[in-house]
Write a structure and sequence with these properties.
The protein is α+β, with helices and mostly antiparallel strands and 364 residues long. The chain contains 7 helices and 18 strands. It has 2 domains: 152 residues, no CATH class; 142 residues, Protein Transport Mog1p, Chain A, CATH 3.40.1000.10. The longest helix has 21 residues. The relative contact order is 0.11.
Length: 364
């Protein structure tokens, strides 16, 4: 039987009248329960600044083989020794709590995926006691990866090359949050970090120093004499003889109080200056030698010599070393005088370093 359009509309209307009351009687989903109340969070120290960090620098310097004088230039390294504690109260008994650092917009931290909506990184984990209190220490991996923004070696030890000079969190006030098992339960506090020393005000320009008289050095000198090969070298009197650098061709080392600058004297065989220099530098355990310039020169007494300015890596110095070497031949040996520094600790002074190296003098 074929229904007319009018009859079909009547049937649809009757069905709707039957279904709507049933749908209206269906039970609605209950609203979600309110989040459990959040407790509190505090951090100790609530403020970390450069002066505080300097007090914790000595053990780090000893562990990394760095001079303590570096505390003025890389104080953030002391975070590796500074204990940071998070505490809280008023949480549910036996609740797992995550302590997170809220990362401000525009600040990049490895491991934070902003594309997935992440805005914080974990610093510590704790479980509250029967009274709802908790205490947790900041994880060492969080200190290195998130606060110092460094990296790790394959052995999971901190990678010195990512920490020195480093890229720690910029100075500022950060938000910390404690998050309960129900992620809607959140407590916050602030944390002031000043891990980077403020730039020193520019020193007033000093009047140009008068050039030393001919034959006179610009520094008060001590002298090293090698009677076996027959030569002598002068160096700043306040530098002290040292055994910090060792190598099969090294005969003398003296260094400043901050360990750099330092002067190294090698006696080494070689067909030419380049070969002798490479033998000397690699013999001390150094690598990644990058020559910046090389030229012929003369010692202070007019003896012909060769000079090179270069950088290299050394296992006892986690930062690149900049050096100037001058070598002159005596018989079948090269005597090479090297003056080196780490720019972060003491600037590379080409004029003074050359002046020291050119004091090399052969006995008649």
């Amino acid at each position: 039987m074929k229904l007319s359009v009018c009859e079909r509309l009547i049937i649809v209307a009757m069905v709707m009248l039957l279904v709507l009351p049933i749908a209206g009687c269906a039970k609605k989903a209950p609203p979600p329960p309110p989040p459990p109340p959040a407790g509190t969070i505090t951090v100790e120290p609530a403020k970390i600044d450069v002066e505080m960090l300097k007090k914790y620098f000595p053990p780090i310097a000893k562990a990394l083989g760095l001079p303590e004088a570096m505390s003025a230039t890389v104080p953030h390294l002391a975070m590796l020794a500074l204990p940071v504690t998070f505490k809280g109260a008023g949480w549910r008994p036996n609740e797992i709590i995550t302590v997170e650092l809220v990362v401000p917009p525009g600040l990049e931290i490895k491991g934070l995926d902003r594309a997935r909506g992440e805005d914080a990184v974990g610093l510590a984990f704790a479980t509250s006691d029967a009274n709802g209190n908790f205490e947790a220490k900041m994880e060492r991996t969080a200190t290195i990866g998130f606060v110092l923004r460094g990296g790790f070696l394959p052995t999971l030890a901190p990678d010195p090359k990512t920490l020195i000079p480093g890229n720690p969190l910029p100075n500022g006030t950060y938000t910390l949050k404690a998050v309960g098992e129900d992620t809607r339960s959140v407590a916050t506090t602030t944390w002031r970090l000043e891990l980077v020393a403020p730039p020193a005000p520019p020193a007033p320009a000093a009047p140009p120093a008068a050039p030393p008289a001919p034959g006179k050095l610009s520094f008060e000198a001590a002298e090293y004499t090698n009677d076996q090969v027959g030569f002598s070298v002068k160096y700043p009197k306040e530098w002290k003889q040292s055994t910090a650098i060792k190598g099969p061709t090294i005969v003398f080392v003296a260094q400043a109080a901050a360990q750099v600058p330092l002067v190294i004297v090698d006696v080494v065989a070689g067909a030419n200056f380049t070969e002798a220099l490479n033998t000397a530098v690699k013999g001390a355990g150094s690598s990644d030698i990058k020559i910046k310039s090389q030229s012929e020169t003369a010692l202070a007494d007019g003896t012909k010599a060769s000079q090179a300015v270069y950088s290299f890596s050394n296992p006892i110095a986690p930062m690149p070393v900049d050096a100037l070497s001058i070598g002159a031949q005596k018989g079948d040996k090269w005597v090479i005088v090297t003056v080196a520094t780490v720019e972060l600790l003491a600037p590379f002074d080409a004029a003074k370093f050359s002046e020291i190296a050119k004091t090399l003098q052969f006995q008649k």
